[in-house]
Every structure is written in structure tokens, then in C-alpha cells.
């Protein structure tokens, strides 16, 4: 598969951001590049067959939507890891069950069962 669109998230503290994404959302590290001082310059995290690119910068930006099989369990895991739930579990009229949250550095994430 050749990807065309890549989600990205920026963090002031990349190592803490990556650690949170692994603990809260179950992402895994695919690639991790550090500079001479050991600071993360670029990372690629796997979520299923897809990638999220992570790097230093200003947090916030556009939100990222990730399709998951068991959104209720995913919601509970994220909340337990410290995610701020911004939209509780919601059954959408288009058939998806979803929730939204912010990670500790302010990036917005959405998870649901909808797979376009």
C-alpha cells in the first residue's frame, strides 16, 4: 500500500508525548530519530497499518481520527492513562460510536468505529 495522507502531531516534549500515545492509545514505535543531544527529532508510530508522525513543535493543530474495533475499551484505557475526555462516547447517526480527547500536551484525538 502506498500512503498519500499522513497524520501528524507536534509536542513540546516529544518523549513524554510518545510515551503517552503508547500507554493511552496502544500505538507502537516504528521509527525514532534523535539529534546529537538525544532529543526526538522525528518519530513514526504505528496504529494498525497506519502511521502517525510525531515531532517537536507547537501542540494543538488539527485533530486526528483513528478507527478502532472496541471504542469503549479504548476510551477507558485512554481515560485511565490521563487523557482529557472532550467528547464522551457517542453513537453517531452515520453508524459510528466515537469519543474525543486531548492528550496531556493539548493535541486533540478522536477515536471511533467508523471506517470510510
Description:
- With 116 residues, the protein is α/β, with parallel strands linked by helices.
- It has two helices and eight strands, in the order βαββββαβββ.
- The strands form two sheets. It has a four-stranded mixed β-sheet, with helices on one face.
- The longest helix has 12 residues, at 14-25.
- It is globular.
What characteristics describe this protein?
116 residues; four-stranded mixed sheet; alpha/beta; 2 helices; single chain
Give a brief rundown of this model:
Helices cover 19% and strands 43% of the residues.
Task: Please render the helix and strand layout as text.
Blueprint (H helix, E strand, L loop, with lengths): L6 E5 L2 H12 L2 E7 L5 E8 L2 E7 L7 E4 L3 H10 L3 E8 L5 E6 L5 E5 L4
Parallel strand pairs: 1-4, 5-8
Antiparallel strand pairs: 2-3, 3-4, 6-7, 7-8
Portion of residues within helices: 10-25%
Q: Enumerate the strands of the largest sheet in spatial order, edge to edge or round the barrel.
A: 1-4-3-2
The strand count comes to: 8
Poorly predicted runs of 5 or more residues: none
